Amino acid sequence: MQSLTLESATERSHDLAARLLPWLHVKALTGGLIVLTFIAVGIFGPGLAPHNPNKQELTAMMKPPQGIGSANILGTDNLGRDILSRLIYGARVSLLIAFAVVFVSGLIGITLGASSGYIGGKVDFGIQKLVEVMWAFPPLLLGITIMAFLGQGLFNLILALVAQRWIPYCRVVRGQALSLRERDFIVAAQCLGANKRQIITRHIIPNLIQTSLVIGTFAMASSIIAEASLSFLGVGVPPEMPTWGTMLADSRIYISTAWWLPLFPGLCIFITVLGINLLGDALRDILDPRLKRTGSGM
Amino acid sequence: MTGYLVQRLAGTVPVLLLISLLVFTLIHAAPGDPTLMLLGEETNAAAVAKAKEHWGLDRPLYIQYLKFIASAAAGEFGKSFKYGEPVARVIKTRLPATIELAVFSVIIATLLAIPLGVIAGSKPNSWMDNLGTSFGLFGISMPSFWLGIMLILLLAGILNILPTSGRSTYGVAGPEITGFYLLDSVIQKNWAAVWDGLTHVFMPALALGMNMLGILMRVTRSAVLEVMNEEYVTTARAKGLAEKNVIWRHVTSNALIPVVTVVGLELGTLLSGSIIVETVFAWPGSGSLLITALNARDYPLVTGLVMTYTVAFVAINLIIDGLYAIIDPRIRY
After folding, report:
1. How far apart are CA B273 and CA B157, in angstroms?
2. ipTM of model
3. FRET label pair with A15: which of B104, B122, B134, B197, CA 20 to 30 Å apart?
């Protein structure tokens, strides 16, 4: 009786996994396709954009979307600038910032997390205090404060976004490093005379890549929204740079007369973030067997 | 339990001190002189010196910081440059609007997210699950300020059924009692004002709460999935309970533990999200006040607001920790 229930339970979970798999693929495929498209648009932007994104055409102001085949497929803004071209250049800026933020945060977070977990003691205490202080700021507020006082600019913006985004890496990596520390292959490396730096860079960090990849995907999604939020509030990129956030900010006073101005940039942010989240979900399901077993979509 | 909370409370003091130092440094690293911004271009050296002396900006930085700490501990952040009133008073007039907005966002988010999450989690891979999961993904991917603009475009613009901005229609609300318009209107039994307040709060609350809705829905779903495998659920089913009772009484009540934590964690995000949503809807809360203060380089007001937000954030996390122990009897500190 006991074995029978167990068997049917396993069967059920196999069944569940089999049913989940196609859904997983759909997620990974859709997400990957969206993200790749936007990356391609970002890379080949100058070749794809039909117009100069900053060229003002005062005789063609506020043209509603004209449809495919016309001069301004998605219309023009209050200064006669082509919306589609600005969106394409905006993809470039948004993705560039997001990649930079994810890379720098990952570098800082993984290094600090691995050191914190593996070395322990005073190093751990110091790093964890730093985490505690930075984490005590409501998100976005720290970014706004940094940008408002250091001034607009790409470098400051990346700094403002990295300020809190390295923390998830640090926390998760620290926990994993703590458990890795006791594992046989680390002890073996120690016995062979490897020093702390070698163990951290050669043995601990390579084992943390998978988890970091998942964290990185979600950090990327949140960076894109945060960058757009800061630019929307007027404390993001320099004003002459076309980004989705600044386009949205500029559109606000024309909401009642020109629906296409706020619609398209926001749609770009939403679709990109949706794609990244889909990809992140799929990655997590694939890379984290614990979550795959329960079939969690989290 | 009490010991743990006291310990946690004491632990927040150095964190708050470090945060105040960080904020103070950041503000003083800023380019641009606040006295010049306030007095305008056509001022003279004597007036600038007088203003600096008046606001204490001529003192050494560490003296300014110590003064700031001493008064901050008493809840005093000095006088706002822009409004000429004590910072605490300025913030106090704006805080109820933000709290009101946050409360409504949480209500909308939880009321929708929990049932959706429970339905999705109890029937994994059904069409309801797919619909709910998609909705959750939609929620977490949606930038709140864009959703706000789109809601204005649709509900206030095209359909013209809701007001675009603000907290109330001029002249509808009665005199202030608590500063919470809806509460005041209920106390005064001014139902027209209650309705007016609700129509104003709906769009910003939905825009602000959408992100939390998505996250909560996903957390609820996975918590339900997790709990469904527990033995006490099998026991409940074996007793012959109706599936409805199993799900809502045994599964949901246990699945709510992680949900409460996430509500707490997300409250902080919600607070800072309110800064941007308030700007979109011209909601007269502390978030839009922060943007005004930043643009005017009103140092005391910015510092006061940042500290208020941070203390609120730290306090919420502390409360959630305590609450966690009450809900889950397995946790003992």
Report:
1. 24
2. 0.84
3. B134
The b/e string for B109-131 (b: 16+ C-beta within 10 A; e otherwise) is bbebbbebbbbbbbebbeeebee
Domain boundaries of chain B, sorted by first residue: 2-73, 87-332
pLDDT top residue among A250 and B173: A250
A278 contacts on B by Cβ (under 8 Å): 137
CB B255 within 8 A of CB B322: no
| Polymer length of chain B | 333
- What are A245-282's pLDDT values in tens digits? 999 988 888 887 888 899 999 999 999 999 999 998 88
Q: Render the burial of A29-50: b for 16+ CB within 10 Å, e for the rest.
A: eebbebbeebeebbeebeeebe
* Interchain CB contact of B153 with A (< 8 Å): yes
A139 and B269 in contact by Cβ < 8 A?
Answer: yes
Taking residue B291's Cβ as centre, other Cβ atoms within 10 Å add up to 19
Write out pLDDT tens, residues B64-101.
888 878 877 777 787 888 888 999 999 999 999 999 99
Q: How many interchain CB pairs under 8 A, A with B? A: 142
Number of H-type helices and E-type strands within chain B: 14, 0
Q: Residue B49 in contact with residue B58, Cβ under 8 Å?
A: yes
CATH number of B87-332: 1.10.3720.10
Chain-chain contact of B271 with A298 (C-beta, under 8 angstroms): no
Q: Whole-structure pTM over 0.90, yes or no?
A: no
Q: Which residues of B touch A291 (CB under 8 A)?
A: 222
Q: Any CB–CB contact under 8 A between B9 and chain A?
A: no
* pLDDT computed for residue A291 by the predictor: 45
